[in-house]
Amino acid sequence: MRLGRFQLGVRTRDGEGVGFDPALIALSLAITIVCTLPLWLTGALAVQMRAELGFSIVALGGAVAVFRVAGAASSVPLGRLADRLGPVPALRIAAGMAAASGLGIAAFAHDWLVLVAFLALSGASNVLGQTAANLTLVRTVRAGRQGIAFGVKQSALPAGSLVAGLAVPLLALTIGWRWAFVLAAVLALAVAAVVPANRTERYGTSSGASNRVYGRRPLVLLALGLFFGMGAAGSLTTYIVESATVFGFAEAAAGLLLTFGSALSIGARLIAGARADQRGGRHLHAVGLMLLAGSVGYVLIAVGTPAAVLVGAALAFPFAWGFNGVFWLAIVRLNQATPASATGLLMPGGMLGGVAGPLTFGLLVDTFSYQAAWLTAGGWGLLAGLCMLLGRWLLRIDLGASDAAGAPRPAAGTTS
After folding, report:
1. Structural domain contains residue 413
2. Single residue among 194, 229, 255 that ends a domain in this structure
3. Residue 248 main-chain phi, psi, to 5 deg
């Protein structure tokens, strides 16, 4: 089955993608959405699910944490699996796992433990889906358009939260929350059905593709940057509505603030991706600056007045939660031979940050205040930006040394 102008698995002589097919980019967006929908739905439908299943708000946080921890634990092996299998089987398996998670929650989640088990499966499907999506974009989109492609793909995260929010009035309050998970499973199966066929039984590395040679120190710093950045961003998306109500917003206005922020984040990912294509390099430098700008937004939210919260959210959402696409573009361009493995290696930093950030934020609110929690989020954002910039600096040192030793030179657009 074909999707777009060409098939996944078409090898090229120069090791780079052969074009820019909107259908394949849409596929990467769709797989990322369906693999995260069980998580977003659990948060959006928490009121109805807690009432029926009888678990606490703390248990809800634990369920979300299990999703991320399961993803972090399986990230490295699933990234390697995606590189070994190729995009076609990996995309289909990820979509199948997402469908199984949705159907499992809809049919069998009558207590918290069963819910958590299927969310763990969803966490693994998210890892496989995202690594396979990154592999797809590297293999099928030419280097000069990969920035916008990754921007579209990473827009799945705020887009998924918007879709989950719509499930509350359309499904949960009409025919029941379980039908939202059924619909999520149907969407996942539909995505699996439209994954295009491969010309080869197994998709291997394109000829000419190679990884740059660098040490462990830059990776550690980049993973730490992702940890702090996603930890702060997780606090933003989790607590902005409740914080806004405490700071004087009406409940409806607080909900609209999240919608407004998610839309800004989607726009920022697309614009940042397009700018990356025009720039051709210095991607991690841009990521560091975005995170530093976003940290200012967290501090403004901590001021606590409605005007400051609005301006702070307008900074934090696009910059502190809009850097992801450019970050992953930089990583896969440095690892063209094994982009899925590189994704899987660094994803645990973001996933564990997504657990630690909201947990720390909640503890700070209980112990001190919302202001203290938002100031801490600003500190995490500052650390994230500094880690990215320092990691880039060390990376450039290592790459210069490897090039001097005769390692492969980068293709166009691979500079960090």
Report:
1. no
2. 194
3. 110, 0
* Structural contact between residues 127 and 354, judged by C-beta atoms closer than 8 angstroms: no
CA distance 92 to 37: 16
Q: Is residue 10 part of a domain?
A: no
Q: What is the mean pLDDT of residues 175-188?
A: 94
Single out the residue of 258, 359, 375, 364 nearest to residue 313, CA to CA: 258
Of the pLDDT bands very low, low, confident and very high (cuts 50, 70, 90), residue 411 is: very low
Cβ(279)–Cβ(213) under 8 Å?
no
Distance, in Å, from the CA atom of 210 to the CA atom of 235, rounded to the nearest integer, reads: 37
* Burial of 289: CB neighbours in 10 Å, binned 0-12, 13-18, 19+: middle
Q: Domain tally for the chain?
A: 2
Tokens of 158: 């705020």
Report field, pTM of the whole predicted structure over 0.85:
no
Q: Rounded to an integer, what distance in angstroms lies between the CA atom of residue 106 and that of residue 381?
A: 37
Between CA 150 and CA 143 the distance in angstroms is: 11
For residue 335, what is the DSSP state? B
363: helix, strand or coil = helix
